[in-house]
Amino acid sequence: MIVDLPDLAAMAAFGRRIAGKVRPGDVVALTGDLGTGKTTLARAIIAASGHEGEVPSPTFTILETYDHLDLPLVHADFYRLESPAEVEELGLDDYRDGAVLLAEWPDHAGGFAHEADCLSIALERAENGRRAIVEGGQGWLGRMP
Ligand SMILES: Nc1ncnc2c1ncn2[C@@H]1O[C@H](COP(=O)(O)OP(=O)(O)O)[C@@H](O)[C@H]1O
Ligand SMILES: [Mg+2]
């Protein structure tokens, strides 16, 4: 599935659609080069899930948690991981319990596409805006955003 995202308003709307579909245990895997909008889309999902206020980029902290929401979220940026083994040291599984994981640079954490509940979103530049190539695992059948 291809979604055109010509501007930030389209990004916000797509974030709302995703926020309306996610369930505990899901992963939203955000791939794409630097500057393609991974953090922008994660912020849109977090805001649409009811978070008010700032959404710091997890570039340095790797994980930011939003567990005050009805559906808790974990926003991760795995860019700085040197090996997928470091994911265990972060205690990611504990953070993910009952939550939705929004993952930037998922490949640096070993990737999540093997999980049935993984929604893979590949962002790329398209003219002045962006385009998303969206693929869902078995768990996304019938609820694609
Ligand atoms: N759909 C879009 N159209 C135009 N600009 C966008 C879009 N999505 C994001 N941007 C802009 O791209 C820049 C980089 O976005 P960011 O989310 O930080 O990228 P990434 O996390 O992939 O490195 C930001 O200035 C943001 O405003
Ligand atoms: Mg980013």
From TrEMBL:
**What SUPFAM superfamilies does the record tag this protein with?**
P-loop containing nucleoside triphosphate hydrolases
User: InterPro entries in the record, alphabetically?
Assistant: P-loop_NTPase, T6A_TsaE
What's in the keyword line of the UniProt record? ATP-binding, Cytoplasm, Magnesium, Metal-binding, Nucleotide-binding, tRNA processing
A single MF term (Gene Ontology):
ATP binding
GO biological process terms, semicolon-separated: tRNA threonylcarbamoyladenosine modification
Q: What is the predominant subcellular site recorded for this chain?
A: cytoplasm
Highest taxon of the source? Bacteria
The listed locations are: Cytoplasm
Give a GO cellular-component term: cytoplasm
Name a Pfam family for this protein.
Answer: TsaE
Q: Which family does it belong to?
A: Belongs to the TsaE family.
Please give the NCBIfam families that the UniProt record associates with this protein.
T6A_YjeE (TIGR00150)
Q: What is this protein called?
A: tRNA threonylcarbamoyladenosine biosynthesis protein TsaE
Taxonomic source organism: Aurantiacibacter luteus
